[in-house]
């Protein structure tokens, strides 16, 4: 059972509904374009979320042109093909394995680059974890600016990396379809765990 409480500065009920309670993972899309300005606004919100040492490894490709969608098509699983090709935009959420090269600018009060240089395992772990966090921030930010999302795996990462990140230090993580969802194509909401099944206070 959830107890509703309020605190100074808390979002109002409508905002909480928009971002969390009523938001859904969409599988169908209305034929309505997504303004570039909303994508920029969502990225500018998502980048403010915390990452380790302000590492900010998130890298994005917004796939929206027919030509770019065709480059993505061969990498998609059968279950994700139709909805992804129909989505106005698909974000390739990736992470940069050379993020530490930017730490002198992003974390200037310590030599954070030295913590990672030459340690491939730590670089990969940090980039993947924090890039995943930033991808989640992006989903919430997209919802906050009035867009619907459908995050998914179910694609060939090697093909996506070859098609979109060849010659770079970025690696794909997951995909997010973006647009205005067709509510008639939603599944019934799946159950969630109760608080006591998720959390323990010691």
From TrEMBL:
Family affiliation: Belongs to the nitroreductase family. HadB/RutE subfamily.
Keyword vocabulary terms for this entry: Flavoprotein, FMN, NAD, NADP, Oxidoreductase
Nitroreductase domain segment(s): 29-180
UniProt-recorded Gene Ontology molecular function terms: oxidoreductase activity
Protein name: Putative NADH dehydrogenase/NAD(P)H nitroreductase GCM10010994_06890
Acetylation among keywords: no
Family matches, as InterPro entries: Nitroreductase, Nitroreductase-like, Nitroreductase_HadB/RutE, RutE-like
EC class of the enzyme, as a word: oxidoreductase
E.C. number: 1.-.-.-
Provenance organism: Chelatococcus reniformis
Cofactor (UniProt): FMN
Highest rank taxon of the organism: Bacteria
Pfam families: Nitroreductase
HAMAP family: Oxidoreductase_RutE_HadB (MF_01204)
